[in-house]
Amino acid sequence: MRQKGMAYWVLLMLLMACSGNSASDPKDTADFDGDTGFVDERSPDTQSDSGELDGADLKSDGLDEDSTVTPDSLRLGVATGRCFVPIGVPSAGYSQAAGPEHPHSPFTEAMSATIKEQSPIQAKVAYLTWGDKELLLVRLDKIGIPMETHDEFVRRLESRTGRSWEQNVILAANHSHQGPGRVWEDLTGEFANDSFWSFYYNLYMDRLVDLALEAMDDPQPVNVEIGRTQCPDCHSDGRCENPDIKDSRLWVISFSSLDGALRAVWLNFPIHGTVLGWESYTLSTEAPGMIEQKLEERLDSPVDVFLLQSWGGDMGPGDPIVEAVVPANPEWPEKYNRLERIGQAASDVVLQTLESEMTPVLDTELDSVTVRFPFHSDLMGYDTAVWPYTTGALLCGDGSDAPCYGEDGDPPNMLGCLPMPAGAIPSDCILSAFRIGTIAFLTLPGEPLTQLGLDAVAMVEEELDTDTALIVGYSQDHWGYLLHEEDFWRGGYEPTITMWGPKQGDFLLEQVPHVLRKLADPSYELPFELQPPRKTPGPAGKSYKTVPSTSKPAVMQQPDAQVHPGQDVNATWIGGDPWLETPIVTLQHLDAEEWSDLLRSCGRPFNNNSYLMETSLAIDPSYDDTDEAQQREFLWTVSLPVSRNVTCPDDLKPGTYRFKFVGKVLRTSEGSYELFSQPFEVTFEQ
User: Fold this and answer.
1) 4 pLDDT exceeds 90?
2) Strand order in the sheet with 428-436
3) How far does Cα 360 stand from its chain's mean position?
4) Is the pLDDT of residue 96 over 80?
5) Among the residues of 273-318, which ranges form H helices?
6) What class does CATH assign to 554-682?
7) What single DSSP character describes residue 352?
8) Contact present, 322 and 344 (Cβ < 8 Å)
9) What pLDDT digit, counting tens, does each position of 619-664 carry?
10) pTM for the whole thing?
11) Would you give the end-to-end CA distance of the chain in angstroms?
């Protein structure tokens, strides 16, 4: 029997208490350049001043004398960057109500604050164009994508580019439970994300649009190949109430320039991002992102890897066995080690596939479609005796535990639910489909369980006559768990987050053939009335004004002068308010009496824009001590293992190193700073 965790009960309390969005209101010291008169208002209405891009210019560049390049060649542009996610925002996914024993910050309301970053929260953007067709895919370190996020992104992108994007934008979350909270726009999502905060949301969204424009700047012709492997040890069946079912297929799609250089890799695999847990108070791209990073580091040039979730609803993270590193590093957190093991195991099988098991996609014609349709209980054919909650419900099962499949025990009362007030649950839904030649993709708006995901695959294969059908879950919209009706009645955790009851998943699947037919034939007449985009979220929450730093930036704790494999290197410095930005920490190497930024084996900078370093923040006086301080000391710390417990091509070699710290600080004005730690020597001699 599987018992419900604390998140279940917190959700119950939050939903009963919630009434909507909050409307309340070597040098060790650095000189920095300040802009006099700086006031950190950062209005949420502020838009980037980037100029509009001309659509024709975007797609005409690169038609050189190479006869293999035609106007109908598939082109790809890629951009990856940090999202605006300051340390201190809550992580989203666990419904962690903050008590007095948990950290809080000005960036939280009901949930505990984060205090460190295991890996940066990123957005990855792929821009594809073929002839006059284009597609923008955005992969986010986020628990899910409500439709409001998709629609607001489209509106901002249209404003910046001057053309329509309604049919060809895909927003897909990787389902990290350590991604940012407070950027979810509706009531039902707030239980896992903290209350919606429009001031922060606007800055977050503007950063996404900036990255999209960067990806669109210079798309280049590419060739496409596809392969399929599996990684059964990378994930585990997390639902015991239904029969054991686990499909470990891992699709690999490569995009290479015409000279053969790898440009990007898309992976499609189901895995929950739930290794670290909310009491780690950590921002992280989690298990899905670690698969990306461990593959990226093993390639011989900087290549952006995108992991697109498939049917991750009942697929928890695994704990594969990989080759042990000697000597072990007992100082590095075991949960970080587990994330790296998952990434290592997945990258093992992906690399083998990339090297010898890929099939060229000869026809790379690009098409996409997005369909919005009515989605509510009146359309699902309920008998009121079977489902009496006409305005929707959550937490069905009366909080009782359900027996695992095949076990003795009474099934829970799945009609014991928390009714939702009229209008709290949206009555529309969105599905998108797109294809790159014979590769077909279908989005699913939430957390599909394996069986429902496989049934959706079969629909795509039949409707589009293809054997390469990929599901992109956690994308475009979010309706909780997507499962078949018979699975709902078995109880367990998953049906508690199913707003329109037992028929929700099956009704959604009934719409899939219509979307696929619309993709294949734009003249196909849909059997329902298309719904309009959802509205822009209104103001919610207070603004935030950056707090000045008490002291000038300076290194406070130097690294040990000599370190060995199996140890960590740590340094602490005074920096600025996290709202300004997370400082970038770069490792430098001394070579022939010259310091230079170290590059990783894959050609990327060796810095904390990866999982290699943990970045943490302590504040004096702390937010727990007082919310009213006019100045604070912001003490940043970086931790770097000399050697890791999982094989890494970037473990430090013997030599002399130092940290470079670059960030922003507010004192009498805002300025930037650059600091260097004292050198430290890595030696293998104990």
Assistant:
1) no
2) 366-374, 428-436, 439-443, 469-472
3) 29
4) no
5) 286-296
6) mainly beta
7) H
8) yes
9) 999 998 988 899 999 999 999 999 999 999 999 999 999 999 999 9
10) 0.91
11) 50
Find all residues with CB under 8 Å of 91, minimum gap 6, and list them.
111, 114, 177, 178, 179, 180, 181, 278, 281, 282, 283
Which structure tokens are listed for 31?
């000189």
- What whole-number distance in Å separates Cα of residue 124 and Cα of residue 18? 33
Question: d(Cα 142, Cα 284) in Å, to the nearest integer?
Answer: 10
The DSSP line for 180-195 is: E-S---SHHHHHHH-S
Handedness of CA 664, 665, 670, 673 (dihedral sign): negative
Report the DSSP beta bridge partners of residue 124.
80, 139
* 3-class DSSP assignment, residue 681: strand
What's the length of the chain? 686
User: Hey, which residues does 589 pair with through a beta bridge?
Assistant: 596, 657
Say which residue, 599 or 19, is predicted with more confidence. 599
In 10 A of CB 337, how many CB atoms?
19
Residue of 477, 480, 484 lying closest to 455 (CA atoms): 484
Residue 69 has what pLDDT?
62
Rounded (10°) angle between helices 198-216 and 147-161: 50
pLDDT of residue 686: 64
CA–CA dist 663, 372 (Å, integer)? 43
Neighbours of 69 (CB within 10 A): 15
What are the structure tokens assigned to 202, written together? 């606007």
Interior CA angle at 631 toward 628 and 635, to 5°? 115
